[in-house]
Specification:
The structure is a single chain. The chain contains three helices and ten strands; from the N terminus they run E-H-E-E-E-E-E-H-E-H-E-E-E. Strands 2-5-6-1-7-10-9-8-3-4 form a ten-stranded mixed sheet. It has helices spanning about 25-30, 85-90, 105-115, and strands spanning about 10-20, 40, 50, 55, 60-65, 70-75, 95-100, 120-125, 130-135, 140-145. Strand 3 (about 50) and strand 4 form a beta hairpin.
Length: about 150
């Protein structure tokens, strides 16, 4: 069933992305609650990335853990600008995005932007994975869409 061009029923929730100020403190605190183990994850340096339409490789620290059948991703921005830095500076720590895998990222992004959403970050990863962070402009909700090769 297609909903106004967006096939959201085919989206699969895979991750909750949380922006933090201090990765070490966040991991320690969450592991104290029984979450984890957390594993550091490094973005590939040979990725292609665009922030608000311009080439940009945002420096971030990332640590992930499997929780309840999905991934909890902690992101600590290291640079003075970028998507996650904007979030931290404007809103503080918190849930920054929900990540969904999709079959056709270009089709889904086009349908969302046609309805008034904004693409804030796009990336192409080595091996063919495509990523788009889309601000739905409602309730502060940002979705990360991922199409695996």
């Amino acid at each position: 069933m297609e909903i106004s061009g967006i096939q959201s029923q085919s989206w699969k929730l895979g991750q909750i992305g949380v922006v933090v100020r201090d990765m070490d403190k966040a991991v320690e605190r969450l592991q104290g609650f029984g979450f984890g183990p957390f594993k550091d994850w490094v973005l590939p340096p040979d990725r292609e990335e665009w922030f608000r339409g311009r080439p940009f490789l945002g420096p971030v620290k990332i640590s992930v853990a499997d929780v309840g059948g999905m991934q909890l991703e902690l992101i600590q921005p290291d640079g003075e600008e970028g998507l996650h830095r904007e979030y931290l500076d404007e809103k503080g720590e918190g849930i920054q995005h929900l990540m969904f895998t999709v079959a056709d990222i270009e089709k889904e992004v086009a349908a969302l932007t046609e309805k008034g959403a904004d693409v804030v970050l796009k990336a192409n990863m080595p091996g063919g994975r495509s990523i788009a962070y889309v601000d739905l402009n409602v309730g502060g909700l940002v979705v990360e869409l991922v199409q695996r090769s």
